[in-house]
Amino acid sequence: MSESVSPDVLERVLRTLSETQKLPLEQVTPEATFEQLNIDSLDGINILFALENEFDINIPDESARLVRDVRQLAEGVQKLLDEKSAPPAPAA
Amino acid sequence: MTRRVVITGTGCISALGNTAGAFWDGCLSGRSGIAPISGFDMTGIRFQNGAQARHFDPSKHFDDKQLIPLDRFAQLAIVAAREALAQAQLELTADERTRAAIVTGSCYGGKTSEDAGFAALYRENQPRVHPMTIPRLMGNAGASALTLELGWQGPVWTVSTACSSANHAIGQAFWLVRHGLADAALTGGSEAPFTYGSLKAWEALRVVSPDTCRPFSKGRNGMVLGEGAGMLVLEPLERARARGAEILAEITGFGMGADAHHLTMPSAAGAARAMRSALADAGLDPTAVGVVNAHGTGTTANDVTESAAIREVFSGALQNLKVTATKSLHGHALGASGALEAVATILGLERQCIVPVANFLEPDADCDVPVCLERQAWPHDAAVSNSFAFGGLNAVLVFSRFSS
C-alpha cells in the first residue's frame, strides 16, 4: 500500500467497502481491482456515498471517475482528508 | 378496427418558452435553455445548471382558488393541454366526451408539494402538512384535473416509467385511438423536478453534468435536468378530415420493451429491439426514416449505447439519416422529455427541417452516428423518437409526414 495512506484510513476504507458490497472483509484487499470485486458503476456510487459519510468528505465526480481499484480509492480518500485538515491558505 | 391516427394539436412549456411556437423557435435557434438554476440555495450542490421553465407564471393561467390543489407539474400539464386543444379546435359533444381519452406521463408527480410538505414536517417541526398534499402529489393529478376542466370521461390514466413515461403514454393513447377504443386523445407528459431534495438525489447518482448537456459529443459529461410539459391531440384521420382540422403529422408506430440487463446501464440490444418494434408497428422499413430524435442524454453510457443501437437498426440506411438530440436544448425533463421531443419531431416533419444538437464540441468515435449540427431543411417522410428509462424500460414512437 502507498505510504501516504494511514493504517486507520485504510482499515476504514476496507471495512466500508466490505459492508457496502456485502463481501467478507478478507476478500477486500488493497491490491484488489473493482473488476475483481465485481463492483460496477452503480455499486461505485453506493461506495462513494458510504465513504463520504464515513469520513465526512465530499468526493468530486471527476476524481471518482478515474478510480479503478481499492488502492486508488484509499489514496483518494487520504488526499481529501489531508486537504480537509490542512490549514487554509493565507489570503492573497 | 384499425384507423390512421393524426396529430391536430401540440402544446408545450419548457425552458425554451411557454408555447409550442416558442419551443420550436428555440429549438431552431440552437440556443440552449440550460442556465444557472434559480429559486434554491445551490450551495454545496455539485452542479449548478438546469433547464427550468423560467417564464411560466401560474397566475396567468389559474386563479388563486384553482391553484390550491395543483402542484407545478399538474399546472404545466393543464396549460400545455389547453394550448394543444386550442390549436386542434376540437369540440366534443357529451356523448363524444365519454370516448375521449387522456393518457399522461410523469416520473415524479407532485414532487414540489411533497418536498415542501416534508421539509415543513421534518425540518421545521411543524405539526401538520397541507391537506392537499396527497391530491397534489399523485401522479395522475394533471390527468384528473384535465377531466374536470374538459368533462372528458373516457379512459384516463397516468404512466410512470421514469424517463420513458411520456413516450409510453403517447404510445398507449395512439393505440387506443388506432384500435377504436377512444375517438380522441390528449396525451403527453409533464415534470417539475426542481426541488432541493430532488437535486440532491440527482447529485448523489453522479450523472448530472457540471456544465451542460452535449449529446454524442466528445467531452460530454452528463445530463442536465429540465422542466416542462408537452401535450398532443390525437384523433382518427377520418374524423379530423371530416371536421376540416389542420393535420400536423401522423403517428404511425409505437414499440416498447425491457432491457432486463441492468438498473442504470443501458443495453444496445434492448434499445434496438424497441426501435425495430416501433418500425414494425408502423409498417416501415428503416430506409424510410429520415430523422431520429435520440434519447441523447449526454451521459457517457447512454450516447455510446444508443449510437450502437442506431447503427444496428439503420445499417445501410445511415446516409439518409440525421440524428438530433433536443435534450441539449430543453434539458432532460424526465417524464415529460418524450413529449417535448415528440413536439420537436412533429414540427420537424410538418416543416421538413431538422433541429440541431446544441453544445456539441467535436465528434466522438464511440458515437459514430450522423449528428445534425446545424438547422437545415431536411426532407423526410418519417421520424423516430426514442426514450430509454432507468430500469431498462424503452419506448419508441414513429411519426410520419401527413399525406392523404
Overview in brief:
Chain A has 92 residues and is an all-alpha fold. Chain A has four helices and no strands.
Number of strands of chain B: 14
Q: Classify the fold: give the CATH topology of the largest domain in chain B.
A: Peroxisomal Thiolase, Chain A, domain 1
How large is the share of residues in beta strands of chain B?
Answer: 15-25%
Distance, first to last CA of chain B: 19 Å
Helix content of chain A: 55-70%
Q: Shape of chain B, please?
A: globular
Question: What is the H-and-E element order of chain B?
Answer: EHEEHHHEHHHEHEHEHEHEHEHHEEEE
User: How large is the radius of gyration of chain A?
Assistant: 13 Å
Summarize the topology.
The complex is a heterodimer of chains A (92) and B (404).
Chain A: H1 7-21, H2 41-55, H3 61-66, H4 70-85
Chain B: E1 5-13, H1 20-29, E2 35-36, E3 49-50, H2 64-67, H3 72-88, H4 94-97, E4 100-105, H5 111-123, H6 133-137, H7 141-150, E5 156-159, H8 165-178, E6 184-191, H9 196-205, E7 228-236, H10 237-242, E8 249-258, H11 268-282, E9 291-293, H12 300-313, E10 322-324, H13 327-330, H14 337-351, E11 353-354, E12 376-377, E13 382-389, E14 393-400
Parallel strand pairs in B: 4-5, 4-6, 9-10, 9-13
Antiparallel strand pairs in B: 1-7, 1-8, 2-3, 6-7, 8-14, 11-12, 13-14
